[in-house]
Amino acid sequence: MFLKIFTVLLIIVTFVNTSKVTFNGHRVYKVIPNNDNEKEVIINTQKQGIGELWLDQFDVRDGVRITVAPEKNQQFLDTMNKNDIEYKEVIADLQQVIDDQLKSASRSDRSTSFLSFDWDRYHTLDEIYNWLDQLQVNYPNIVTTVVMGRSVENREIKGIKINYNPNRNTTLIGMIEGTLHAREWIVPATATWIIKEFLTSTDPEMKALAKNIEWHIFPVVNPDGYVYTFTTHRMWRKNRSTRNFTSCASTGVDDDMSNGVDLNRNFDFAWMEVGASDNPCTNTFAGPFALSEPEARAVADYVLTLNNQGRLIYYFGLHSYTQLIVVPYSHITAEESAKLINYADMYEIAVRGAEKLKERFGTEYRVGVSADIMYPMSGTSFDWVKNVTDVPVSFLIELRDLGEYGFLLPASQIIPNNLEIMDALLEIDRTTRRLGYYYSGTNNLISSLTLIVFSIFVKLFVN
Ligand SMILES: *[C@@H]1O[C@H](CO)[C@@H](O)[C@H](O)[C@H]1NC(C)=O
Ligand SMILES: *[C@@H]1O[C@H](CO)[C@@H](O)[C@H](O)[C@H]1NC(C)=O
Ligand SMILES: *[C@@H]1O[C@H](CO)[C@@H](O)[C@H](O)[C@H]1NC(C)=O
Ligand SMILES: *[C@@H]1O[C@H](CO)[C@@H](O)[C@H](O)[C@H]1NC(C)=O
Ligand SMILES: [Zn+2]
């Protein structure tokens, strides 16, 4: 009798523990809408629960991926055929790709490891946080771990400060914010690589970039969501907020979608104006009000504090995927942005970065305001930071790839991605200095004079 009850309990416990969402047999199709009507049909397949789109918004002629469960497959094919929409199966079994992503990349040596960490596989939150703690122990005079706040589920939002020169008079500050969106695993893999380079690189320019600026780097600002992508739902994007819980089952989407706020729509600048949703059952739910979420508030408060402590020079928000360097502002056009801020300079800085990035492996990044290269959106962190601090350079960077794997980028691409991003960062910094936003030993009076002469020369010829 006792044993029986125990067995039943065990079964219940096992059942609860295995509530991990799996995608066995789920196919991924690439569809290309040729007109607004076809686009509408594709959006409706999601609304009707036939499939889940990989991108929240897309344009006519964009290739968009859509995940389709086995039991919906025939319905999906019928809908596409009936409407004469081109489709192509690009992944036969999504779970296989999810499992593959957890495997280490093969390698011939361990040269890329640093303390307990390497970049041949993706790491859990605990591994990342443990590594940050080790850095403080190993670089006591340079690295300080910082907790900027706590998440809804009370996890620390932990990052580090890198400061080679605590006694300097004017502190130039750079901040890198990673993983507002939970499922974008390449982001913490990139942020941690940047930290490694700033601490260990022997390249003189890299060392100068690390030392000229006091860096604040937070690989995972949405820790609850990140953990959730490991334990339960690999494709999760939002935080785990339940405040606005409404059952979404009736709308045809996964009922779990009822939880969570899109943190990159929750900031207090142009909040809910465009490209954000007031419907909790969507992936771009902006929250009940601006800065409603503790994670977004923590980032905002931290940025305001930094802005009082020194001169903020760089703000980079890292995301994936689509290979973009996005320049503010996201809710308006480039022309309108140029009237408000140093848009032209930021655009040039981003273009130079993207050109340099391409040199190593040929990877192409596009540059511009979100409305031009993605879609208009509002309530994002990097726009808010630009507006509130007028930091000279504030970019949202969408890392690899273009959608072949999307959020499921194989571990073998981590290091190539990181190498090209470092190339871009160095070039971004060179250009920022060349345009006079700050000076360091590496751009002395002579190069400034050269620039002035060159500018006059160009102006004469262009006019
Ligand atoms: C998500 O947002 C809710 C507020 O709606 C908040 O209470 C919760 O802590 C957030 N969860 C995470 C993981 O940030
Ligand atoms: C910092 O400023 C003080 C006076 O404001 C000056 O005496 C000192 O030389 C400066 N130190 C550096 C490193 O520039
Ligand atoms: C979300 O919850 C808040 C109260 O916490 C409420 O004011 C707001 O109207 C709700 N929003 C939606 C879309 O349900
Ligand atoms: C910030 O936004 C406000 C309101 O849109 C605008 O008036 C102001 O010029 C902006 N400031 C900057 C630096 O963009
Ligand atoms: Zn994102």
From TrEMBL:
<keyword id="KW-0482">Metalloprotease</keyword>
<keyword id="KW-0964">Secreted</keyword>
<dbReference type="InterPro" id="IPR003146">
    <property type="entry name" value="M14A_act_pep"/>
</dbReference>
<feature type="domain" description="Peptidase M14">
    <location>
        <begin position="121"/>
        <end position="432"/>
    </location>
</feature>
<dbReference type="GO" id="GO:0005615">
    <property type="term" value="C:extracellular space"/>
</dbReference>
<keyword id="KW-0378">Hydrolase</keyword>
<keyword id="KW-0472">Membrane</keyword>
<keyword id="KW-1015">Disulfide bond</keyword>
<dbReference type="InterPro" id="IPR057247">
    <property type="entry name" value="CARBOXYPEPT_ZN_2"/>
</dbReference>
<dbReference type="GO" id="GO:0006508">
    <property type="term" value="P:proteolysis"/>
</dbReference>
<keyword id="KW-1133">Transmembrane helix</keyword>
<comment type="similarity">
    <text>Belongs to the peptidase M14 family.</text>
</comment>
<keyword id="KW-0479">Metal-binding</keyword>
<dbReference type="InterPro" id="IPR036990">
    <property type="entry name" value="M14A-like_propep"/>
</dbReference>
<keyword id="KW-0645">Protease</keyword>
<keyword id="KW-0812">Transmembrane</keyword>
<dbReference type="Pfam" id="PF00246">
    <property type="entry name" value="Peptidase_M14"/>
</dbReference>
<dbReference type="Pfam" id="PF02244">
    <property type="entry name" value="Propep_M14"/>
</dbReference>
<dbReference type="GO" id="GO:0008270">
    <property type="term" value="F:zinc ion binding"/>
</dbReference>
<feature type="active site" description="Proton donor/acceptor">
    <location>
        <position position="398"/>
    </location>
</feature>
<dbReference type="GO" id="GO:0004181">
    <property type="term" value="F:metallocarboxypeptidase activity"/>
</dbReference>
<keyword id="KW-0732">Signal</keyword>
<protein>
    <submittedName>
        <fullName>Zinc carboxypeptidase A 1</fullName>
    </submittedName>
</protein>
<feature type="signal peptide">
    <location>
        <begin position="1"/>
        <end position="18"/>
    </location>
</feature>
<feature type="transmembrane region" description="Helical">
    <location>
        <begin position="445"/>
        <end position="462"/>
    </location>
</feature>
<keyword id="KW-0862">Zinc</keyword>
<dbReference type="InterPro" id="IPR000834">
    <property type="entry name" value="Peptidase_M14"/>
</dbReference>
<keyword id="KW-0121">Carboxypeptidase</keyword>
<comment type="function">
    <text>Involved in the digestion of the blood meal.</text>
</comment>
